Amino acid sequence: MNNTKKFASTLLLTAMLTGCGDTTPPSQKATEDKTAPEASEAGRPVQRADEPGLTAEYAAFRKEQIADVNYRISVELDRESDTFSGRVVADTEIARTLQQPLTIDFTGGEVKAVSVGEREIPFDYNGHFISIAPEHLAEGENQIAIDYNHAYSTDGTGLHRFEDPQDGSVYLYTHFEPYKANRFAPLFDQPDLKARYTVDVKAPADWQVVTTAREEKVEDSPDGRRHWYFPTTKKYPTYIFPLHAGPYVVWEDQASDIPLRLMARKTLAPNVKPQDWFTFTRQSFDFFQKYYGIDYPFGKYDQLIVPDFTIGAMENVAAVTFNEAYVSRGEKTQAQRQQLANVIAHEMAHMWFGDLVTMDWWNGLWLKESFATYMASLALAENSEFDDVWENFYLRSKQSAYRADQLVTTHPIEVPVPNTAEAFSNFDSITYGKGGSVLEQLPHYLGKEAFRQGVSNYLQEFSYGNATLSDFMDHLGRAANENLDDWTQNWLYKAGVNTIAVRYQCTEGKITELTVTQTAPKDHPVLREQKTQLGIYRMQDSIMSRVAAVPVTYSGRKTQVRAAEGLPCPQILNPNDEDWAYVKTSLDDKTVAQLSQHINAIESSFTRLMLWQSLFDKVTDAEMPLDQWIDFALENAGAESNINVIRLISRHLEAASAYAHRFDIPETLRAERLQAIEHFVWARLNSAPAGSDAQKTWFETFARLAHTDEALQNADQLLAGKLEIDGLSVDQDKCWKLIVLMNRQLHGDYEQLLEEELKQDNTDRARSYAITARASRPTSAAKQKWLDSIQDRRGELKLSHLKAAARSLFPAEQLNLYRDFGEQLFSAVPQVSETDDTLYNKAYAMLFPVVCDRDDIAPYSEALKQNPDLMPALGRILKNRRQQSEKCLAMAKLQKDSAVR
C-alpha cells in the first residue's frame, strides 16, 4: 500500500544467528511479546467481545481453532441497486473439538442463511460477526456456507461504488486493509489465515470483472447479465483479495511472459498515458524478479486507476488499485512521472513482500510498507530512466520521516497493535519514511549483496506463508554473518531522530583532528550506531568540489575519525554526504558562513539540496531568524538550475510565507516580506526555461502565494488568456488552481469564474476543486457553511469532498476567521471522536491549523485535557498542532529578538 498525499504511506525482529538455540536478548523478548498476538495458553478459550473489530488475542485463539480454510465466493452485481448479494462457502478444517463458538467476521450486512454441509443451522449475528455454536461443527473438514446481502460503500472501503457524474457509468472496486474484507463478505479476516479463492460473478453485460486470476470462461445469463468464472488462486490473506467491476477501458501489454492490463474509467481514459505505466511496470518486473531470485508468483498483473480512492495505491494480489491523482490533465513533470514509477514499483514490491510472504499480525504492517518504500527507490535507481532517485527519496521519504520523528507523537517503528481498530493508529511517516530510511542504511551497514541474499532467503523460506520481524532480521543477520540484536533494539524499538555535528581542527591547511558528536532528544535519549559519509569540499577553479569522502561508522557521544587526519581542511563539510544515514545534521559555523557566498558554486546538486534543507532546519529549530533565511534565499535561489533543489526552495518559500502570516510582527514588515517572496516567485516563473519543470514548479508556487493586486491581476489575465508566459500551458488543472486562488483572495469575478468552469468541466476532480475554492473564501458565511457541513451533514459529502473542504477552510492568512470559529471547532471534538470513524476523524483533524499565539494554543491544551481518550486519528493531530504551535512561538521570539538587536 502506498500512503501518498498520496502518498504515501507507503516505506521492517530479532536474529537467530547460530542455527542452534535462541539468542534473542531477554529485553527484546519482552518487547516482542507485546507486539505480536499471543497464542492462548494450552488452548485456553478466549471470549470475543460483542463489539466491532478483532483483537490480537482473539485472532491468535481463532488461528488455533482453524487449521486451514479456502473460499468459494459467488457475487451478484448490478448497476442500479445500492446493495449486492453473495454466497461464501468456506471449506474449513477445524483443528480440534471446539469449546467456544466459531466466529466469522462480517460487518454491517444481512445474513440470510448459514449451513454446514447440507444442513442449515441456527446462528447468531450481531452486525459485527457471525457466531456458530460448537455443536454444529466437527473436528476436521467442514463446509460452511453463508448467503448474505451487503450495501455498497461510499467511503472507499469494502466494495466501493462510484457513479461518474459525467456519463452516469457505475464502477466498483474493493479496498480491504486492514480489516475491511468483512465489509464485502463473511470471512476469517486476519492476515495469518491465508486461503485460496475460487470466484464467480454475475455482472452487467458491458462490465469488466477483475480479480486475482484471469477468467476461465464468461457466459451470458438469462437476465441479460454475464456470468464470470475464475480459477482457484494461490494462498494469500483476505485483506488483499480483489474484486473490481465496471465498464473500464482496458489497455494490454506484456512483461516477458506476464500479461499486463491497465484500466481506467471511460471519462478519465483520454488523459491516461498507458505507455508510461507499462514501461515502468516492465522495468520493475525486470528488477524484482532478478533481485528476489523468485519469479513473479501470481501469473497475470492488472493495474486499475479507480475513483474516490482514499490512499495512493493498494497491493491487491495481481489487481492493484491506484488513486486517480496519478493521472494528470496536462503534461507531467519529471518528478510526477518519477512519483508514478515509484508507486508502481512500490506496489509490485509487495507482490513478494506482503502478498507472497505476509506478516502474522498488524504490528508487522510497517515492515512490508517500509520495505516496499525502500525497494521502490532501489528498483528505480537500478533500472529506470531516472538518475535522481535518491535525491527524491531524500526529498519525500526522509523529510517526512524527520518531521514525524520530532513530533510529540513519534513512536518506535515496531509498536504493539492490540486490535484492528489500532492497526492504523501509528500508520504514518514513521511507518513509510523512517522505516524505509532505516532499511536504506542496512545495505551500507551489512553490504549490498548480503542484504539482497538475506531478503531472497527470507522470501523463499516463507513463500505462501506468514512471518515475523525476527524471521526477517534472522535472515539478514545470517547472510551478513552479523548479530543484529542491538541494531534491532535501537532502531526498531526506540523512537526519535539523532543529530550529528562534526568538529575539527586544521593546521597548515590539513585536518589534524576530527570528531563526530552525536546527540539525542531529551524524550528519546538513545544514541545509535550507523554509517555515514563525511563530504569535504573546497573551492577549485571557481567550483566548490568534493576533495575527500570519508566513510565513518559512528556510535556513542563522540567518535574520533582518524581517517580524516591529514586530509584538506574543509571550506564546507557535509556530515551526511550522499544521504547514507538517517540523522539530522548540524552544520559547523564555517560551513554556514561559506554557504552564504558559495552555495551555488557547489558542484553536487545533491549536496546543495541537503545543505539548503539543513539551513531551513535551523529556521524551524529556532536557531536562525526567518528574515535571515528569506534574505539568503532571495539572494541565492535565482541562480539554482537543478529541479530538485528548486522544488525544495519553492516549498520552503511557501512555508516561510505561512510563518510570516502567523508571526506577531508589524503589518508593514509582514507585507514587505510577503511581497518580496511573491515578486521573486513571479520573476522565476517568467525567467524559467519555456515548458520546463522549473516553470511548472514556480507556477504552482505562484498560484498558492499570490496576494497583491498586481499579482492577482496577472493571475486573472493568465486565466483569461490575455497574458501568456512563453512555454506555459494553462491546462485544465492549472486553470482550477488559478480559480481557487481567485476565490481564496476574493479577487475579480471569482464566483462567476467557478460556476462557468464547472459547466465546462463536470468531473469529480472539478467538484473537489470547486469545494476547495468555496471553502477557502475568507468570509464568515463560507466558513460557517462548510464547518456546519463537515460537522452535521457529513453523510451528504463523499469523503474526498469532505477532505477538500476541511484542508482548505483555515489557511495561514485567515487565522482571524479561525479564531471566530474556534469554539465551534473544538466543542465538536468529543462527538467527532465518538463516531469511531477513523477516516472522518482524520478529515476533521485537517481543520486545525498551526498557530503562533499563546491564547490560540490554549484551546489545544484544554481539548486534550478534557478529552484524554480521543481516537488516535484526531488526538494525535491535536497534540502535534500544539507542539508545532509552540515551535512557531519560539521561532517568532527569535525573529523578534534579532530585530531588536
Question: How would you characterize the overall build of this protein?
Answer:
By secondary structure, this protein is of the alpha+beta class. Among the domains are: 56-259, tricorn interacting facor f3 domain (Immunoglobulin-like, Sandwich), CATH 2.60.40; 501-611; 622-727; 813-901. Helix content is 42%, strand content 19%. The strands form 8 sheets. The protein has an 8-stranded mixed β-sheet. Helix 3 (274-292) links the parallel strand 17 (258-264) and strand 18. Helix 5 packs across helix 7 and helix 12 (605-620) runs parallel beside helix 14 (643-662). It is globular and about 90 Å long. The model is unreliable at 4-39 (pLDDT under 50).
